[in-house]
Structures are given as C-alpha cells and as structure tokens.
Specification:
- The complex is a heterodimer of chains A (about 500) and B (about 150).
- By secondary structure, chain A is α+β, with helices and mostly antiparallel strands.
- Chain A is built from 14 helices and 25 strands.
- Chain A folds into three domains: about 160 residues, Zinc/RING finger domain, C3HC4 (zinc finger) (Herpes Virus-1, 2-Layer Sandwich), CATH 3.30.40.10; about 60 residues, 2-Layer Sandwich (Herpes Virus-1), CATH 3.30.40.10; about 160 residues, Apoptosis, Tumor Necrosis Factor Receptor Associated Protein 2, Chain A, CATH 2.60.210.10.
- The longest helix of chain A has about 40 residues.
- In chain A, about 20% of the residues are buried.
- Chain B contains four helices and four strands; from the N terminus they run αββββααα.
- A four-stranded antiparallel sheet of chain B has the order 1-2-3-4.
- Classes of the chains: A alpha+beta (about 500), B alpha+beta (about 150).
- The interface between A and B is medium-sized, with 27 and 21 residues.
- The structure holds zinc ion (7 copies).
- The site of one zinc ion has 7 residues of chain A, from loops.
- One zinc ion binds next to loops of chain A.
- Chain B: GO terms for molecular function: ATP binding; ubiquitin conjugating enzyme activity.
Chain lengths: ~500, ~150
C-alpha cells in the first residue's frame, strides 16, 4: 500500500486529500513527499522499515521529473514560486538554505532549521547532520513544520500567467528559462493556497491559434482571434480566391484580376492580360522586325514598325532574296542528301536482287510445223521488276543468218528509262543427254535506256546464228515427240534509273 | 553542453556581484559560469596587508552537495596554504555543508589570512617556521606579499 503511494501518479492523487504543497498550479506533476506519508513514518508505522526503500525509490522517481536543480520548480514548464511571490517581506525565513528558493514541502531538524524535503534528503545522503546546526540527523528524524506550511499556504503570489517566458538570447550553456513580467498578463494575486483553483480557469492561460500558427493566444481571446489572426483565410476581392491574410501583400502583386497600368503605354487592364497585351498590342513594346529571320536586327517599338518597314523596304528585299537563294541552296543540298540516301537504299536492294538467278523454260510442241513460221515469241515473264520475253527465228532473223536459228532475249517495250545489266545464257536442251545441250553463254548486256528507233531491230540480246537449223533433230536428241526445249538462265547484275527533269538532268547515278 | 545552471548558483553569483564583501571579489568566467576568478585583499594588520591574492574557485556538478574547489594562484607564505595554492580549511573538506556558500567560503579564507593556524598545517616547513619564530615567519610572509601579491 505504501509502496504504491510512491509512484508518481499515486503521490499526486494522495496529495489531493492531504494538505498539499502543490504551490505551482495545475501543471505540477510531482509533489514533495506528502505530509501524510511522512507522519506515518514518524509515528513508527509498522511499515517504517520501508523508509530506506522510500528514500531510494521515491527520490529516484522525483529525479525522473525534477531537474537536479534542487528545489527548482516542480512544474518544469512554468515559473517557480520564487518568480511569482509578490511580498518579499519575511520571505527570507522561508527560503531553503540549500536551493536558496522558497521551501517546497518544508522539513525541519530537531532545532527547527527548515529545508525543502528533497534538498535535505540529498544532503542527508551525504552527511547525517543538519547543514546549519550540524545536529546529528537522519531521514526518520525530519519533522514537518505546520507553521511554515501555514505561512507558505498564505503566501501572496501572482497568477502564473502574470509572467511570460523571455525569448532566450543567452548562450546555450545558460539555458535557464527566464520569466519576465507579461505586460498584458493576468494581474490577479491571491494566496498560494488559492493559486491552483484560479489558474485552472484563468483566461490569461495560453491557448492555441485555431489556424495552426504560432500566435500568442489566450483562453479568453481565442474567439476574437478567429477574426484577428494574421494567418486567417480571407477571400481576394478581385479573383475570389481563398488566401491567407499574411500573404495578401504577396498576392496583391500577383493577382491576375487586379487592374493595373501597362508601364510602357499606360493602358489599363487586368494583370492577367498584361502579357498578351505586351506580346500583341502594346504600341510601346520593342518588337523584332518581321524580317529578323532574314537578318534584319532592328528592334523598334510596335508603333514605329510601319515606318521601319517603309524605310527598310529595299534592304529587306535584298535580304529576302539573299535569304531565298541561301534557302534554295540549302534545299538542293538537302534534296541531294535525301536522294543519295534513297539511292543507297536502292543499291542495297539491287545487290540483294542481283544475287538471284532465274531459269526460264520455254517448251514448244509441234516444232516441225512451228519452224515454218519466221518468228515465234514466248510468253512474257517478270524479272527484276521488268517484263521480258524470248523470241526465236527458226530460219534466222535476217538473210545473213539463213539456215540458222536466231534466239534472243527481249525487254518488253514499255520499260522505258531503265537500263538493266544482265548476265545470261540461252540454251537448247538435249532430251537424251542433258550435257550436250547447245549453249550460248556469257552474254553481258545493258538493255536500252531509251528506245532508239535505229536500234529497233536489235533490241534483243542473243545470237543471230545460235545453231544451224539442221542440228535440231530427234536423232540428235534436241527434239523429243516434236518438242523443242529452250531454257534461259538470267542473272540481274544491276538496274539503273535515269531521272530527267524539265531543264536539267540533275544526276545520273549508278 | 553543460547542464542548466542551477538557480542557486545564479542567485549566488548575482549576490556576489551586487553585494560584494569588503576585500573580496568573485567573477564568473565568461565561458564557464561554474568557474570563478577570485581576488582577496590581504586583511589589515595581517602580514598579507597590501597584497591582492588571486584564487580560482570551481563549482562541481555536485555543488552544493559537495564543496567548491578553491586554490590560491598567487604565491603566499602561509602555514595552511601549500606551494600549489591548496588550502587547508575544514569547511572545504569534511566540514562542508550545503548551507554554506561561495561567500562564506571566501570569508573563511579571508579569516584564515588574518589568523594563520600553524597547528593544523598543510605546509609543514612554513608551519614549523611559524611556531619556532613567528616574527621571522611574519617577516618572510610580508616579503612574499611584497614580492608576489603587489599589483
Ligand atoms: Zn530547497
Ligand atoms: Zn539545525
Ligand atoms: Zn490569472
Ligand atoms: Zn493566429
Ligand atoms: Zn486575387
Ligand atoms: Zn502597353
Ligand atoms: Zn527590319
């Protein structure tokens, strides 16, 4: 039971029922040793043996809350009794010689020397004597002093809200909080006994600003602060936005709805329109000449621009023409670049194509009757994007080739403007023995760029005297069931385009 | 960072400055408010008359439960003060009481200058000199005062 009393909470609660030395108001968290407890110890309570435990545990628990500064305010956040006492008369008698402050829970020696309970406990831990008269003394011999208690209770004190914390300008090693008179603080005085009751409802007690700012607000001014706080929110008369009062000045130089003057032309407008005005309308704004891109560096007021245009017409014209020719040159360079890129692409495609080899078969039934015609033509086939066909003259294409077969490869006449480099071979296959075919090999030809009338005759490539007509017999194996079998093997080496424009041939490229 | 200076020390310091005792001055150092520069004038009629003696005084963390540490910085020929300036005074040791103060300690030291006590010596040779030839010892003390303690 007694041990329980020694916990911090219990001490405070217990203090409520006993005469209390809570001299400092509602925030006081730790009391001195309660007189109640002490009297029981003094009456040789059966639990007296716990006193040693008492001094160990209770003092430690006090130290948890009370600074090592003996007798300093038990209310660590508030002023001490010494700060608040208003009659200095006779007060020296009630000061503790150890902490030199007004007694807290007074205790006395056998000879009546007074100390704070906490101060004398600490001293007795070191020396079992009264620090003043040196009479032998231990904890259990300490006595209360009803006279001192009564005097202390009757002490005239200020309300603790009479004082305010001094904003510390002192160096950190002297971090002592200084309490100074609050010029707007509570002026009430009363006895120490009445302090707690008053302070618990004192209107001068600090309170929190409802706008979360660090304002000095008191309980009694909380409501009026709602309309006075510089951090309260107001509505801008101009843009109707919610802003903090303290930022009004800032806002006023930014609010887009406030009417202002253009500082150049003095025209009136909303701030939000100024930028557009300056960009588009303001006659006094310096603007660059419309020919700046063409190299005119003039910067003149908008209103003077027409005159500049007039005065500089000739130079503008010269600039424009120079600029245009530069531009043309650049364009042509760009064009070349892009054509070159395209060409590169084509060349790579060509290369891919060129590696391909085509075999085209042309089989003619009833050769014995067909050979009486002067000319026979195969169906068209497509190769390298162009149309081709083969042609055969069974008895030579011209008189100088009579008695021979003429065999040609032709490019279809609608493929203008292109040249194709080919490697090809033409052969008449032997049905009996594939190795004895008649071959005309190694043709290399560029098929014509432009169809030229004089080349009409020979726009095909091949051989006028491919083979004597009488070679083609069943006996030789070149006919079987009257079927003649011709094969063309073609490799495309390159394709060239030539681009013609109206006046100039820009480039031929291959 | 040092702990808060206890109110008692602040109070004592204020009083030392505002109500100084005759012949005694104690000023806290600017960078450590627990360290005091002390000056004591040699008491009239003593062999130390006319001298000004410098001392240092330091308040430990335990103060006032433990006595201040005091030492003479000025050399002095005194049976209770040794060559290192250490003082043989009971209240600075076993007779310390937390009811004593800086002021009372300095007054006691001033008293010790007025009334050297060769029966409780710290400097044995000086004490012997004092007991055997008090006049000679006083002459030496005066000479030391002239030599070391004159400003
Ligand atoms: Zn005290
Ligand atoms: Zn006493
Ligand atoms: Zn009040
Ligand atoms: Zn506010
Ligand atoms: Zn606005
Ligand atoms: Zn303007
Ligand atoms: Zn221009």
């Amino acid at each position: 039971m007694l041990l329980k009393v020694l916990t911090g909470d219990e001490v405070v609660r217990n203090a409520g029922s006993a005469p209390t030395f809570n001299l400092l108001g509602p925030n006081t968290t730790v009391q001195g040793i309660t007189p109640n407890l002490f009297s029981r110890v003094n009456q040789s309570d059966p639990l007296f043996t716990l006193t040693s435990g008492f001094s160990a545990t209770s003092v430690r628990s006090f130290e948890g809350n009370v600074a090592m500064d003996y007798g300093q305010s038990r209310d660590l956040d508030g002023p001490t009794l010494d700060d608040l006492v208003c009659e200095e008369k006779d007060i020296e008698e009630y000061k503790c010689p150890i902490c030199m402050q007004i007694l807290q829970s007074p205790r006395q020696c056998k000879n009546g020397h007074l100390y704070c309970a906490l101060c004398i406990q600490k001293s007795l831990d070191k020396r079992a004597e009264c620090p003043q008269c040196r009479v032998p003394l231990n904890l259990s011999e300490l006595a209360k002093s009803l006279v001192a208690e009564k005097h202390l209770r009757a002490l005239k004190v200020h309300c603790k809200y009479y004082l305010m914390r001094e904003e510390s300008k002192k160096p950190a090693h002297n971090a002592e909080v200084n309490w100074i008179v609050d010029p707007e603080g509570c002026q009430e005085t009363f006895t120490q006994e009445e302090a707690e009751r008053h302070e618990s409802k004192c209107g001068y007690a600090p309170d929190l600003c409802m706008f979360g700012a660090n304002c000095r607000v008191r309980k009694m001014t909380v409501e009026e602060h709602r309309d006075a706080c510089p951090y309260r929110t107001i509505t801008c008369d101009h843009c109707k936005k919610e802003i903090k009062l303290v930022s009004l000045e800032d806002h006023n130089v930014k609010c887009p709805e406030i009417v202002i003057h253009c500082e150049l032309c003095q025209a009136e407008m909303k701030r939000g329109h100024l930028r557009e005005h300056r960009r588009q309308q303001c006659p006094e704004e310096d603007i660059p000449c419309a020919y700046s891109e063409q190299g005119c560096d003039a910067q003149v007021k908008r209103k003077q621009m027409p005159r500049h245009m007039e005065e500089s017409a000739a130079s503008h014209l010269a600039r424009v023409s120079q600029h245009l020719s530069q531009q043309l040159f650049q364009m042509s360079e760009d064009f070349k670049q892009s054509l070159k890129a395209r060409d590169d692409k084509i060349r790579s495609l060509e290369r891919a194509l060129a590696d391909q080899n085509f075999d085209i078969d042309w089989k003619m039934k009833n050769w014995s009757s067909l050979k009486k015609k002067s000319y026979l033509q195969s169906g068209e086939f497509e190769l390298a994007g162009l149309k081709w066909y083969m042609g055969i003259y069974p008895n030579g294409d011209l008189p100088d080739a009579r008695g021979h077969i003429s065999l040609f490869l032709f490019l279809s006449s609608n493929c203008r403007g292109q040249k194709v480099g080919l490697r090809f071979s033409l052969r008449i296959m032997n049905h009996r023995n594939p190795n004895t075919k008649i071959v005309q090999n190694g043709f290399r030809a560029n098929f014509p760029l432009v169809e030229r009338p004089e080349e009409q005759v020979s726009k095909g490539w091949g051989a006028k005297r491919f083979t004597p007509c009488d070679e083609i017999t069943e006996a030789n194996g070149y006919l079987k069931d009257d079927l003649l079998f011709i094969q063309a093997s073609i490799t495309v080496c390159n394709i060239r385009w030539e681009v013609e424009t109206a006046n100039t041939s820009i480039v031929g490229y291959w | 960072m040092a702990a808060n200076l206890p109110r008692r020390i602040i109070k004592e310091t204020q009083r030392l400055v505002s109500e100084p005792d005759p012949g005694i001055s104690a000023t806290p150092s600017d960078d450590n408010l627990r360290y005091f520069n002390v000056m004591i004038a040699g008491p009239t009629g003593s062999p130390f008359e006319g001298g000004v003696f410098k001392l240092e005084l330091f308040l430990t963390e335990e103060y006032p439960m433990a006595p201040p540490k005091v030492r003479f910085l000025t050399r002095i020929y005194h049976p209770n003060i040794d060559r290192l300036g250490r003082i043989c005074l009971d209240i600075l040791k076993e007779k310390w009481s937390p009811a004593l103060q800086i002021r009372t300690v300095l007054l006691s030291i001033q008293g010790l200058l007025s009334a050297p006590n060769p029966d409780d010596p710290l400097a044995n040779d000086v004490a012997d000199h004092w007991k055997k030839d008090e006049a000679g010892a006083i002459t030496t003390a005066k000479a030391w005062t002239n030599k070391f303690a004159m400003v």
